[in-house]
Every structure is written in C-alpha cells, then in structure tokens.
Prior knowledge:
By secondary structure, this protein is mainly beta. It has helices spanning 12-16, 22-40, 307-311, 317-323; strands at residues 79-84, 90-93, 99-102, 114-117, 123-125, 147-152, 158-162, 178-182, 188-193, 205-211, 220-225, 231-236, 242-245, 260-262, 265-267, 269-271, 274-276, 282-288, 291-296, 302-306, 334-339, 344-349, 354-359, 390-394, 401-407, 410-415, 436-442.
Amino acid sequence: MARSDALPRLNLQNQTTTNNTAAAKSIRTMYWKLLLVSALAVHVVAQFPSTCPAIVSAGLNGTYGICPQDFTIIGGSVEPVHESTRAPTGFAVDPSLNIYLTYPRNQGATPNNVVIATSFTGEQPWPNAAYQNCTPTQNVSTCFINVQNVVLDSINQLWIVDSGIAPGNKSATPGGAKIMSFDLSGNLLATYLIPLSLYHDNLNINDVRINNTLGGGNGYAFLTDESADGSIVSINLDNGTVNRRLFNTTVVKSDPGYVGVYDGQPIYSWNGTNRVFSAIGSDGIALASGNVYWGVLSSRRFYYVSQEVVIDNSLSDEQVLAAVQNPGECGTEQAGFTADDNGRVYILASEHNAIFYVDTLQSQVNETIDGVPPGGPPLVPVPPERYVVKTLVRNALIQHADSAAIYDGWLYFCTNQLEFSPQFSYNNTDNRRGPFRSYKTWVGAGPAV
Length: 449
Ligand SMILES: *[C@@H]1O[C@H](CO)[C@@H](O)[C@H](O)[C@H]1NC(C)=O
Ligand SMILES: *[C@@H]1O[C@H](CO)[C@@H](O)[C@H](O)[C@H]1NC(C)=O
Ligand SMILES: *[C@@H]1O[C@H](CO)[C@@H](O)[C@H](O)[C@H]1NC(C)=O
Ligand SMILES: *[C@@H]1O[C@H](CO)[C@@H](O)[C@H](O)[C@H]1NC(C)=O
Ligand SMILES: *[C@@H]1O[C@H](CO)[C@@H](O)[C@H](O)[C@H]1NC(C)=O
Ligand SMILES: *[C@@H]1O[C@H](CO)[C@@H](O)[C@H](O)[C@H]1NC(C)=O
Ligand SMILES: *[C@@H]1O[C@H](CO)[C@@H](O)[C@H](O)[C@H]1NC(C)=O
Ligand SMILES: *[C@@H]1O[C@H](CO)[C@@H](O)[C@H](O)[C@H]1NC(C)=O
Ligand SMILES: *[C@@H]1O[C@H](CO)[C@@H](O)[C@H](O)[C@H]1NC(C)=O
C-alpha cells in the first residue's frame, strides 16, 4: 500500500490550542477536508495503537486485523493425552483407552517402532521387544522394519502397516512389506505380505484401514502407497489376494512443483542446499459410507471411490479410474484421514494447524447447499459437487497432526512437526522441537470402522 509523504502531518493536539480566529478556523476546515480526502484515498499515515484492545473473539462485534496476534482459535478444546520425545506418525486407541504409537524409520533408526503408552510420558515396546528391529536371523516377514501406522478395526484387532523400507533404502526389503493383525493382548493373528510383483516403482505402503464386513468373509484392507507414482492397494483378508489400483494416475500423484505452507512458511524439500519439490503421493486414508477416501500428500487434493469398485478384479484400471469421485480440493496438504460413524470424514489439515471435516451423508448436513435443504433420510450420500469442507478445530497445539483415531466420542491424533524435519528444511537441519504431543478433541461420535 502506497502512502503519501506529501500530506501535511498536522497535529490535532496542537490545533486545539490555536486561537479561535477565522484563520485558525479555515486551517482547521482545511485540515479536516484533507483528512477526509486522504482517508478516502487510504493515504493517511495511520497511528498504530500502542496497545491492543482486549480480544473480542465472539460475535460480529469482534475485530480482525487490529493486533499482530489476531489469529483465531477455532472449535473446542484440544486436550493432551500423551507426550513423546520422538516424532510419531501412527496412533491408535483401544477400548480400554490404551494408546499405541509408531515411530517410523524414514529418517533413520528408532529404538522401538511400535509402543503402547504406560503413562503420559511412559512407553513400552508393543507387542514386545522381539518384534521391534528385524535382526539378521529373523525372517523379515515376522518383525518390524519400518511401521508407519497402527490401526484398530471394528472387531478389536490392531493392525500395523510396515512399508518394509529399511532406513536409507528406496525399496522394500523382499518379504518385508506387510500388514499384521494382533489381538489386544499382543498375540499375532495374521500376516498379509505384499507380493514381490507389486514392489515395482518403490511401492511405499503408508496407511491402512479395514472393513471387516465387506465381501461377506473376513473383509478387506485398504492401503495407500505414498510412492511418487502412488496407488491404492486392497487385500482380501480371506485369501490374501493383493490388488494395486490407480497406479501412476493423477489421483494418487503429487502436484508437479508443489510447495506447501507450515506455520506461515513455504515448505520445499531439500537435498542439502539444493531445492527439490516434495512428490509424496496418496497418503492419508479413511473408510466411510462404503467408500475409500484418500488424499495426495504433496497437493491439496482428495478423492473417493466405492470400496466395491476397488476390490472388483473384473474391472479394468480405466474403469476404476473413471469411478473415482473428485469433490474439489480440500484446501490443505494432509497426511492423515479418519471417519466417524455419522459418515463424517476428518482431514488432518497440516497447513492450517487444523482438523477439517466433510459430511458425506446428507442427513448430517446442517446448511442449505446449492438449494438443497439440510438433513434428509439416513444413508443418502452427498454428491461430490455438494461437498463442503469445514474446520473442526484450529489451534497452535496442532503442529502437523499426522494420524487420527476416533473412540467413544473423541477424536485422537498425534502430532510430529513433519515440515520442520530434515527433509523439508534448508540444508537438512532438524528444526523440530519436542516434545511431540498427542491430543484428543470432542466430536461426539464413534469410529466408522
Ligand atoms: C454488538 O454490540 C451491540 C452494542 O453493544 C449489541 O447490541 C449487539 O447485540 C452486539 N452484536 C453481536 C452480534 O454481538
Ligand atoms: C517368512 O515368514 C512368512 C510369514 O510368516 C512365511 O510365509 C515365509 O515362508 C517365511 N520365510 C521363510 C524363509 O521362512
Ligand atoms: C538396502 O538396499 C540394499 C541395496 O540397495 C540392500 O543390499 C540391502 O540389503 C537393503 N537393506 C535392507 C535392510 O533391506
Ligand atoms: C480370493 O478371493 C477373491 C474374491 O472371492 C477372488 O476373486 C480371488 O480370485 C481369490 N484369490 C485366490 C488366490 O484364491
Ligand atoms: C507414469 O505415467 C507417465 C505418463 O503419465 C509415464 O510417462 C511414466 O512412464 C509412468 N511411470 C511408470 C513407472 O509407469
Ligand atoms: C543429493 O545431492 C547429491 C549431491 O549433490 C546427489 O549425489 C544425490 O543423489 C542427491 N540425492 C537425492 C535424493 O536427490
Ligand atoms: C463396509 O462394507 C459394508 C458392506 O459393503 C458397507 O455397508 C459399509 O458401509 C462399509 N463400511 C465403511 C465404513 O465404509
Ligand atoms: C452447522 O454446524 C456448524 C458446526 O457445528 C456450525 O458452525 C454452523 O453454524 C451450523 N450451521 C447452521 C446453519 O446451523
Ligand atoms: C550445511 O550443513 C553442513 C553440515 O551438515 C555444513 O557443513 C555446511 O556448512 C552447511 N551449509 C550451509 C550453506 O549452511
């Protein structure tokens, strides 16, 4: 904004002490005219208040843009539930409200890959120490190489998703890319291996959700592959058949030249002092209303497609791609999704210190959108052209929420300041500042699966 230095800097205080002569009057009139003209032209040199008014956040009488700290906190309280010294990526909560976290090895070794919280700061390896670090004598299909997330399904089984990619490597160790299910006592129930035929182009399985009823048997697992080419993977939990779909299509690939924002700062990837662009593909995933929802991390895009379509081997790749719904961008880079039993999908909005959501069932919509009134009979989906993404919470406590889980009315999430980690920092410095807290915020719903 230009400002005019040619305007007289008259001082009102001095003017009022001037004698009430005709000359003084005319000066005052001229002054007010000048002030008016300059105000209209936005030319006046504003005198900034030396103190900020008390923050009035509620109601239309509140102010914006008066104080440097006028950032708004949106939504209800965000309550800490656990504190980690390392940055976690995965989070689960079980019916006894035990908390599970994963500490992946994308940026080097971690002593434990999966832990259960024993107190606010206490942790122990889960299910036990022997799983945590594959040793040369262990079969890599039976221990953890690089677990990204731990997820509770609807029949109280905990699933871990292991990318199988050892620290420093680009591709999974043969036999190491897998999902494993455990009961709540930590007994291994099942292991599903990604076949070597699907390892091509640095397959990097990142997140998993389970539909325990789909297909009538033991259900299906749905996974995101965050490799640069991206894909959505399904696993038939009856016979272990694995399908990789949407591979190398725009709906699972990053935006070329993508630059995100974190805590108000543009974020690139860095190789030392060489600037590179982040190219992380399909990452966060949730199941809701019979659909698979996912986002592309290095983008502000999200999509959904029918679960039935993803598991249908008779469909061509072109048919699966054609069935993908595009509800418009979600307005944020995102590393995690979850969903509740009202068909609400939550998007961990890392660019905004926020959690966004979108209602996918018309019965939950509370506003008239494009002429369609709120509410409606149960289970009627909102068509993609009427999706409206909204903010659940925005709060400086939310420093890159990465994984979320819903239980008993609360939405839980871990935070890890991902964009301050070496990969995203100039000259690969680690600008993260622990501790890394996990939080819960009230949503009043149960988990979708
Ligand atoms: C704004 O302030 C006026 C005067 O105090 C009050 O009458 C009105 O109810 C307030 N409006 C809102 C939306 O808070
Ligand atoms: C490694 O473990 C997997 C899963 O239990 C099993 O299918 C495979 O046969 C084992 N491989 C060897 C060499 O024992
Ligand atoms: C990492 O990759 C190298 C080859 O690029 C391979 O020799 C090595 O075994 C891999 N490490 C693990 C733990 O798989
Ligand atoms: C697994 O089951 C699915 C669905 O019934 C079927 O399409 C597929 O061929 C089966 N795979 C194997 C290896 O039996
Ligand atoms: C991915 O698709 C592009 C065209 O969109 C193609 O040039 C490239 O070779 C594909 N990559 C792989 C690994 O198939
Ligand atoms: C990073 O840069 C170095 C040297 O400039 C190069 O050898 C290396 O391949 C680069 N790494 C990546 C992941 O691009
Ligand atoms: C799981 O699959 C069943 C059967 O197709 C479907 O009714 C249900 O909506 C799916 N669950 C979710 C959360 O999408
Ligand atoms: C719909 O719900 C949201 C979130 O609770 C609220 O902010 C909004 O005001 C509601 N809209 C209407 C029309 O009630
Ligand atoms: C980058 O970091 C290395 C140490 O890792 C240091 O030696 C080098 O001076 C740094 N370069 C710049 C430009 O800061």
